[in-house]
């Protein structure tokens, strides 16, 4: 088990566009394993490779639903989206903050698994939100540019899901 350092706001890498994955190497497998370990260690809902300093189009998500979560999404793209949800969002790379963001309530995503086999994933609610949040990371975008109103400080009472 290896926990990787989370890059935080102020680090340029968070604003860079990640590159498509064309082959799975032993290093890619270790990266994915470490990303899962890191996400669970810090109680995140999702984590993108750029957040641990690797500019590859990979993220992991676990919104707390049953199997087959967690999902590993490689080179993901949204092929369908529908509806709207407005709610709180936070990010492991923007510690201590949260804000209100509107996202689709449903997304259908085409992604590749750890063997680069394509699969489709349908997601609603928190999982859909997490996927949209992580997709933004792959394009060098943070949720704070989508926040409606003020970015707020977390208090001890608030336990926001961080992605
Ligand atoms: Ni994030």
Task: Describe this entry's structure for a reader.
This protein is an alpha+beta fold. Helix content is 18%, strand content 34%. The chain is built from two helices and eight strands; from the N terminus they run αβββββββαβ. It has a five-stranded antiparallel beta sheet, sandwiched between helices. It has a three-stranded antiparallel beta sheet with strand order 4-5-8. Strand 6 and strand 7 form a beta hairpin. The longest helix has 16 residues, at 26-41. The mean pLDDT is 94. Nickel (II) ion (NI) is lined by residues 91-93, 133, 137, 163.
Distance between the first and last residues' Cα: 20 Å
Q: Low-confidence spans: pLDDT under 50, at least 5 residues?
A: none
Report the total helices.
2
Q: What string, H for helix and E for strand, traces the elements in order?
A: HEEEEEEEHE
Rounded to the nearest angstrom, the radius of gyration is 15 Å
Which percent range describes the beta-strand content?
Answer: 25-35%
Report the helical percentage: 10-25%
Mean pLDDT: 94
- Tell me, briefly, the overall form: globular
Q: List ligands, each type once.
A: nickel (II) ion
Could you give a short account of the major beta sheet? 5 strands, antiparallel
* Structure class: alpha+beta
């Amino acid at each position: 088990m290896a926990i990787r350092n989370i890059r935080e706001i102020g680090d340029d890498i968070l604003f860079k566009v990640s590159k498509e994955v064309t082959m799975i190497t032993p290093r890619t497998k270790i990266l994915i394993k470490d990303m899962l370990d890191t996400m669970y260690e810090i109680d995140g809902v999702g984590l993108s490779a750029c957040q641990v300093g690797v500019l590859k189009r990979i993220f992991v998500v676990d919104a707390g639903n049953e199997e087959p979560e967690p999902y590993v999404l490689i080179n993901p793209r949204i092929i369908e989206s529908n509806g709207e949800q407005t709610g709180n969002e936070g990010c492991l790379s923007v510690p201590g903050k949260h804000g209100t963001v509107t996202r689709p309530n449903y997304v259908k995503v085409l992604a590749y698994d750890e063997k680069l086999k394509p699969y489709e994933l349908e997601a609603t609610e928190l999982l859909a939100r997490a996927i949209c949040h992580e997709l933004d990371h792959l394009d060098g975008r943070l949720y704070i540019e989508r926040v409606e109103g003020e970015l707020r400080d977390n208090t001890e009472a608030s336990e926001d899901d961080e992605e």
